[in-house]
Amino acid sequence: MAIPTLDTNAPAFTRRYMNLADPRLGARALHASDEFFAPKERMLDPQPAVFIPGKYDDHGKWMDGWETRRKRTTGHDFCIVRLARPGVIYGLDLDTSHFTGNFPPAASIEACHAQAGDDETPGDNADWQTIVPATTLQGNQHHYVEVRDTRAFTHLRVNLFPDGGLARLRVYGQPRRDWSTVERGSLIDLAAIENGAYLVAANNQHFGLASTILMPGRGVNMGDGWETRRRREPGNDWAIVALARPGIIRKIEVDTAHFKGNYPDRCSLQAASVTGGTDDSLITQAMFWPALLGEQKLEMDKQHVFESGIAALGPVTHVRFNIFPDGGVSRLRLWGEPV
């Protein structure tokens, strides 16, 4: 499995929000006007696109993405995608990696909010809204597009003009959950990305993205977690997480699944209730937040659950997760009562 790398030139929304088009969370490519050369499902693969020289199948050169045949009629190709969760979209990545002479000259994105079933495309009465107008594409390149529509959507329609291949589609946004259905006193994972939590910042993400610790389930391997480089100077590594909802933390879980010779020796958490401020200001503030959980010894390849020793800080909105001095963590769970 290829390890997703951090593109330092990518906009902040790619690091801050979850990929609503991630099939591991439930997203699906439902229908495509054509998928002769490569199936639509490959476009949503969470792994980076690859190119395999000399690999062909019955339809021609094998390509890692969605690719339509050369269009000989009027019109354009399209694909309808059901997002993993209804959510507000902040930006997209239209990735044409490895598509050079076969990429679409342009693409646009439409979105709607529909009550269609898991396998159903939105009906004829769906209110499709253009969130990305026709945009010029280049071959073998990431195209980061910011979206400024604050409505929540459930489905996308990806339009290629007139045809071609798209290696990957990433849809960065925040799930819109109905918190009114949560019973008072029940514990919810407020650090879960599917509930709306997101990564604010991390000091190092050399071997694995810090946002991975907010993903559901246990990590499938060592590449499915946050791992920093080996620290050769004093200090420790850290990640700041914005909770899905302000809440009182009652239980903490730190999972080092698959990290054996490279797990952190210890961890701790700080927390605070924050309103306003930029990411840069939060990084500075977080150094002085009170301790939510003091330093705890960690072990390799293990789920660590902490229910005692959690400070009574009241409702908090953000946490700083410290690892000492460096290493890899698979998942972080912060179970609390939403307020």
From TrEMBL:
Please give the superkingdom of this protein's source. Bacteria
- SUPFAM superfamilies, sorted: Galactose-binding domain-like
Name the top EC class: hydrolase
**Pathway connected to this protein:** Nitrogen metabolism; (S)-allantoin degradation; (S)-ureidoglycolate from allantoate (aminidohydrolase route): step 1/1
What is an example of a GO molecular function annotated in this UniProt entry? allantoicase activity
Name all Allantoicase domain ranges: 26-175, 196-338
Q: Does the keyword Cell wall biogenesis/degradation apply?
A: no
**UniProt keyword annotations, A-Z:** Hydrolase, Purine metabolism
Q: What is its EC number?
A: 3.5.3.4
InterPro entries named among the record's database cross-references:
Allantoicase, Allantoicase_dom, Galactose-bd-like_sf
Q: Which reaction does it catalyse?
A: allantoate + H2O = (S)-ureidoglycolate + urea
Q: Which family does it belong to?
A: Belongs to the allantoicase family.
**Could you tell me which PANTHER family the record lists for this protein?**
ALLANTOICASE, INACTIVE ALLANTOICASE-RELATED
The name this protein carries in UniProt is Probable allantoicase
Q: Which organism is it from?
A: Paraburkholderia hiiakae
Q: Give the encoding gene's name.
A: alc_1
